[in-house]
């Protein structure tokens, strides 16, 4: 699988002709002719599979409502100073069953957030945060709360299993809230989750994000995160300041300054870093290219500067419109 994805990514990279905001693609005609039939075929399979399962568990409306199921393939090219160059192909998918009665949904997804490691291992969030692979895939039922998160806490309770042997049952509870801070343009959002996996133990995470638009193309954010995992047994924290800028209809960039640390009894910073994340829609909202240079000051290197860069090519398979 990894070799095939890597070969496809090289083929697509070779077909990029350059940045042009006047159309919906940067690919050359031969690359478009090569990937379009493959993408359309896989997208139909993903959409039909999701709707057939939805129709079995849900209602007859499954063929006409929006379905958020998707499949995403990616390849990361990572380099960090004093470390080896790494190529990491990944798959992420989500199966959504939106018409199940009484707000009960069947969810199958890869790369659950409980499997992404410590905050220091995760690094900064990309403009689109993915992916690891099929080794951490969960399947379960999730009951959604009925409240809009702008009016009250929107909650979700779920249970299921992680799909590998031995079977690893889990329970989850999450709550989200969004506040408009008075008459100002500032908004505050909160996301919180508590989880239990039989083989991994308990974990809890909280994210608080306050931000405001500066103008039509720039958005300022301050993001605070807390995380605790039983197997790591240390409270972690991170604080970031982000400036997001829309460069055009198909590209955006994020500038970030981040602090990552841990321990509740004796807090200490483990890494400072500056990061730029440039994201480009290179073909019709399903093929994307990320370039992410960063300058780290890690404790393990006595806070001496260490350069790193990540390149990612990503292809999304998802039906864009509701069926008629």
Automatic annotation (TrEMBL):
Signal peptide positions (record): 1-19
Positions of the UniProt region annotated as Disordered: 111-132
Biased composition (Basic and acidic residues): 111-131
Keywords annotated in UniProt: Signal
Protein name according to UniProt: Uncharacterized protein
Record organism: Halopseudomonas aestusnigri
